[in-house]
């Protein structure tokens, strides 16, 4: 069982081994998290994605679905992450022609005992990686960066908004 040190939960048990935090005593609350990532590419690659003429199909449609599916499977991917009853996942894309990039914004909601920051981060990162995968044949120099939680609400730790 996970140990509680003062007011801190830790991922280590009494013998110092990694363990899942026991959240059973925490109240269920509505929780939301938003994460963002950015993928930069050649202008021609962005134009190809926007035109819908990529050889592998609708890049953003597939990336949206991949992000949603990844959020639902986060506990299978991240050790010690709690499986959560996700109530909503939204993955949207904001193209920036001036910098030849796409920003991925993933928002995840649940009512539970722990937050959905990891699910939002997983959704944003997998959506970005899917864009890379679908376009790597025409642009191997794409860069995925800026993965971060930008907003969080609910739970004992309160709300958070990135500066």
TrEMBL record:
Catalyzed reactions per annotation: (8S)-3',8-cyclo-7,8-dihydroguanosine 5'-triphosphate = cyclic pyranopterin phosphate + diphosphate
GO biological process, one term: Mo-molybdopterin cofactor biosynthetic process
Residue ranges of every copy of the Molybdopterin cofactor biosynthesis C (MoaC) domain listed in the record: 20-155
GO molecular-function terms, A-Z: cyclic pyranopterin monophosphate synthase activity
Listed pathway(s): Cofactor biosynthesis; molybdopterin biosynthesis
UniProt protein name: Cyclic pyranopterin monophosphate synthase
Keywords on record: Lyase, Molybdenum cofactor biosynthesis
Gene3D superfamilies: Molybdopterin cofactor biosynthesis C (MoaC) domain
Family to which the UniProt record says this protein belongs: Belongs to the MoaC family.
Function: Catalyzes the conversion of (8S)-3',8-cyclo-7,8-dihydroguanosine 5'-triphosphate to cyclic pyranopterin monophosphate (cPMP).
């Amino acid at each position: 069982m996970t140990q509680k040190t003062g007011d801190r939960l830790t991922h280590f048990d009494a013998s110092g081994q990694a363990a899942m935090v026991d959240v059973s005593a925490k109240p269920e609350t509505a929780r939301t998290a938003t994460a963002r990532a950015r993928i930069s590419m050649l202008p021609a690659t962005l134009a190809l994605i926007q035109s819908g003429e990529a050889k592998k199909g609708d890049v953003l449609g597939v990336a949206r679905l991949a992000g949603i599916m990844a959020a639902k499977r986060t506990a299978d991917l991240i050790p010690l992450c709690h499986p959560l009853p996700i109530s909503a996942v939204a993955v949207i894309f904001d193209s920036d022609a001036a910098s030849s990039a796409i920003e991925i914004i993933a928002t995840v909601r649940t009512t539970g005992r722990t937050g959905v920051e990891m699910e939002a981060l997983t959704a944003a990162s997998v959506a970005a990686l899917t864009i890379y995968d679908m376009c790597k044949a025409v642009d191997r120099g794409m860069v995925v960066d800026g993965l971060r939680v930008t907003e969080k609400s609910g739970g004992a730790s309160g709300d958070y908004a990135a500066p």
